[in-house]
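User: Hi! I'm working on a homework problem where we have to compare a predicted structure to a textbook description. Could you give me the structure for the chain below?
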Amino acid sequence: MKRLHFAFAALMAPLMLLGCVVMSGTSKTDFAATRQADMVFIGLPAPLNWFAAGMQGTTFPVSSQLSLTAAHVAVPLLKPVRAQHPTCDVAVIGDNNRGKIVHQLAWARAGRNVTLFGYSAINSLPKSSRGKIDGFVKRKGCYYGIITGAGAVSGMSGGPVIDSLTGETVGIITNVIPGKGAVAFVAVQDFTNLLDRMRIPYKTY
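Assistant: Happy to help. Predicted structure tokens:
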């Protein structure tokens, strides 16, 4: 519970958005991430965007024509937003996902081991990390899951959080908790109204 209080305090800080150049915990270069997620950018990809204006993030397919990502990734990257949650940092974008893995969504559960996938905004390499869902905290009407023991870097925002046992995607990476070795995500059960509207299937438990 003490860790969740730390997490709540950290979630209140704008610095946590992975659009900023921040890191938390450890992640590794993992080319398996290229099968689970897509890199999106405007301007030039890293590290070229160090010398010219640009930014990047991560998305993942949920149908042949739709992908999920964090809203703070979709909007500034000028992606074709099909729907956006009014309070949670979630957006559905249009994309051509022919031939890609389509993620099966399910509700997130505390205590479950998960794997995170995304792309580094530092060098554009695919990244992954593992941790456990420690619990959930509420911020501005949205419940954020807290993953402890995991790491993330700038650019992984919008990437999938995958249940290590079932292989189902249970949320979207949105933030890190600096100095705590933890990552925050929006759980699937927090944006089912958006999924229903877009006719994207998901499992409940």
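For your comparison, note the following. The chain is about 10% helix and 40% strand. The two ends are 23 Å apart (CA to CA). Good luck with the assignment!
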